[in-house]
Amino acid sequence: MLRKNPRGDYPVVHETAFVDPTAVLCGLVTVGEHVFIGPYAVIRADEVDEDGGMEPIIIGANSNIQDGVVIHSKDGAAVTIGEHTSIAHRSIVHGPCKVGHHVFIGFNSVLFNCVVGDNAVVRHNCVVDGHDIPEGFYLTSATVVTGATDLSVLQSVPQSAREFSESVVHTNVTLAQAYRRIQNEF
């Protein structure tokens, strides 16, 4: 479902993207080409700052927002999801937040007030709160990163994780195309 926010902003979705009919996109949201947005995802740009301003939520080309993901932002802050990026099932991305290109965010992970650099992998059940993750870094499942976390203990992304991330992106781009073909058959 696409709908306006109280300010009157309406989502813009590229014609090659697929948004599942159960997903909700509200407000100042821009969805790039070949994006797949799965069932029950919620992408909501409706809060404003103290001056009534709002930055957009942007989903980059060839990315996927999987089942049950929530993307929102406090006080109209920007949220950007880069190109060729996967946000896996039931994750929460809460702005202000920027997720780079070719990033994988695993199941049930939570991102808030952070930047995740290009080519990073954040595995399942991680929390990143108030600390940036540099390009190419790898967080193993259930890692918690806060402002006090020493990043020198983190490792770079192993080749197997990079290959997995790329396969998830490829699968979901294919799904976006396939669902667009059959969308009027439901």
From TrEMBL:
Annotated keywords: Acyltransferase, Repeat, Transferase
Superkingdom of origin: Bacteria
InterPro entries associated with the record: Gamma-CA, Hexapep, Hexapep_transf_CS, Trimer_LpxA-like_sf
Molecular-function annotations in GO: acyltransferase activity
Gene3D superfamilies: Hexapeptide repeat proteins
Protein's recorded name: Carbonic anhydrase/acetyltransferase-like protein (Isoleucine patch superfamily)
Source organism of this protein record: Paralcaligenes ureilyticus
